[in-house]
Each structure stands twice: as structure tokens, then as C-alpha cells.
Design goal:
This protein is α/β, with parallel strands linked by helices. The chain is built from 9 helices and 12 strands. Strand 8 and strand 9 form a beta hairpin.
């Protein structure tokens, strides 16, 4: 396994995560002492072998990329048969911000759901770029339906709380209701229970109270990030400001009022260009995680 396969973070790393976050609102002014969660079971990672890209990406022609002012991106390799991250059905949930893999891929996650631009749905329909959506109930409840065409493309809906609080600043019971109430609503609306959770700002990710609340509400992992997309470029946690194999990237559903006049599709196009410039393909996060069975 690559030595970057850090599953579980200490307090210092969490502070870096908060500083790099693109989440709306202010970050907490102090941090609780973080306690690393129990690691997920990660398989040994063999070097990649040749394989075809996913069928959805194979259907995207050069004209579709040109429509959005982009060059065709490299196609992701076939999903690994042996998933690098294996989640357990019970016990402490792991916390991770990257996937251990030799595949030259990164993973795009998009948070909250504030911007509901129909052109973004068309963009993903055209380009078949996989994303994972971490939705906040009170931000999306005025239009749950907007995200259903994105889900129909194979993009899963995951849990990002009821109303986006700083989790370490609220009591344990409130933390639980933030996660459980969002879990119930998202399951009812989208037909599948989220199995991943992301705390707003990354805050409290390694605290026992949050880990317990996540366990009690159903998700089986806490997912953070290594890079966060701004408008034209990413903020990096790595000192060399370069993507690495398996990095999870954070972006947000945002529009012109938050992006200095840029649209959601323009921001996403910039993100894809930055990924392409470094020679990476975009893979589906779910394809690299084995969900609990039984």
C-alpha cells in the first residue's frame, strides 16, 4: 500500500483540512483534540493492469467536449475488482481523504447543493464525468428533484448534515440529529441510504462524538479531501501543489454570486482542465470502495 494511504487523521492534519476548505461560512476558531478513527480495511494495491474504460465514458465523443470548450479527457481505467477500501458493517467508521491506488485517477465530490444550474445537469449528461454528491438537507429541500437526473447518471447522493453546522460546537445529541435527520430525508427522496458522510468544514471528523453519531445514523465512512476547487484553480494540502493518485477533490454547487460572475459549468470546466493538465482521469469514488455486505 502506498504510504499516502492515510486513513484517519490527527489534530494537526484536521487543522490543515479546515484551512483548505472551500465550504461556505467561517471555519471554527479552535479545534477539539482529534482522535483517529479505526482504519478501514484496505487491501494491498497491485500495480494497474490494462483494461477498458467504463462504458459511459466510452460513449463521449470529441464534439461533446468541444461543446463545453474542453479537450477530451483521459478515460478512467476499469474499476478495480479488489476495492482498495473495504468498509465494515459495524464498529468505528474510518476517516479518509484519498484512496490508495496506483491508478492515475482522482475523485470529484461536490457539496451542499446551493446552486441548481440546469446547464450543469446537461454538462454531466454530455460528458459523463463521475461525481459524488454530499447534500445538505435544508439547502436542497426546496428542489430535491434537481439532483435526480444527476443521480440517474450513476452519481450517488451522500450525507452532509441537515443545515451545515460546525459539528464540534454542538452537543452530541444535536450532532446525531444533524446526521440522522439528513439520512432519513435523503434516503426517502433518492431511494438509497447514503453510506458516506462529510462533516461541514471537515470539522470534528476524528472526534469520538461524531464517529459515534455517524455509526448510529447509518453511514459507514467519513470522507474528507486533499484539494478544494475555488474558481479557476484548486487549493492543495500538499506542499508541492500537485495531485496524487487517488486524491479526493472537494467542490461546491455554486453560481455567479459566489464565483465572481463565473457559472457552475465554467468552474467545473476549469476543474477538469486543471485535472487534465496534470495527466489524471476522473474515476467514480464508489468504484473504489467496497460497501458492507450482509
Amino acid at each position: 500500500m502506498t504510504n499516502r494511504a492515510r486513513i484517519g487523521y490527527g489534530a494537526g492534519a484536521l487543522a490543515v483540512l479546515l484551512a483548505a476548505s472551500g465550504c461556505g461560512g467561517s471555519t471554527p476558531d479552535d479545534q477539539h483534540q482529534a482522535v483517529p478513527a479505526q482504519p478501514a480495511v484496505a487491501s494491498s494495491v497491485a500495480p494497474p493492469v490494462g483494461g477498458s474504460s467504463t462504458p459511459a465514458q466510452d460513449t463521449v465523443g470529441d464534439a461533446a467536449w468541444a461543446k463545453w470548450g474542453l479537450k477530451p479527457m483521459a478515460k478512467a481505467p476499469a474499476p478495480p475488482a479488489d476495492k482498495p477500501i473495504k468498509l465494515t458493517k459495524t464498529g468505528a467508521v474510518p476517516v479518509f481523504s484519498e484512496i490508495p491506488t496506483h491508478d492515475k485517477v482522482v475523485f470529484i465530490t461536490i457539496d451542499d447543493g446551493a446552486e441548481k444550474d440546469p446547464k450543469f445537469v446537461q454538462m454531466l449528461t454530455d460528458l459523463k464525468v463521475p461525481i459524488t454528491m454530499f447534500l445538505t438537507r435544508d439547502i436542497v429541500k426546496n428542489d430535491y428533484g434537481y439532483f435526480k437526473p444527476l443521480q440517474a447518471l450513476g452519481n450517488t447522493v451522500q450525507n452532509h448534515t441537515v443545515d451545515h453546522p460546525v459539528m464540534s460546537k454542538i452537543p452530541a445529541a444535536k450532532q446525531k440529529s444533524e446526521i440522522c435527520d439528513a439520512q432519513t430525508a435523503l434516503t426517502e427522496q433518492y431511494g438509497t441510504a447514503p453510506y458516506l458522510f462529510r462533516p461541514p468544514y471537515g470539522d470534528g471528523a476524528n472526534t469520538p462524538a461524531l464517529n459515534t453519531a455517524v455509526q448510529e445514523c447509518g453511514p459507514r465512512a467519513v470522507v474528507l479531501w486533499r484539494e478544494s476547487m475555488q474558481i479557476h484553480d484548486m487549493q492543495y494540502q500538499a506542499a508541492d501543489k500537485k495531485l496524487k493518485n487517488g486524491d479526493i477533490i472537494l467542490a461546491h454547487f455554486r453560481g455567479p454570486s459566489d464565483l465572481k460572475g463565473e457559472t457552475m459549468t465554467q468552474m467545473f470546466g476549469e476543474l477538469l482542465s486543471r485535472i487534465q493538465e496534470q495527466g489524471f482521469a476522473v474515476a467514480r469514488l464508489d468504484d473504489y470502495i467496497a460497501r458492507p455486505t450482509g
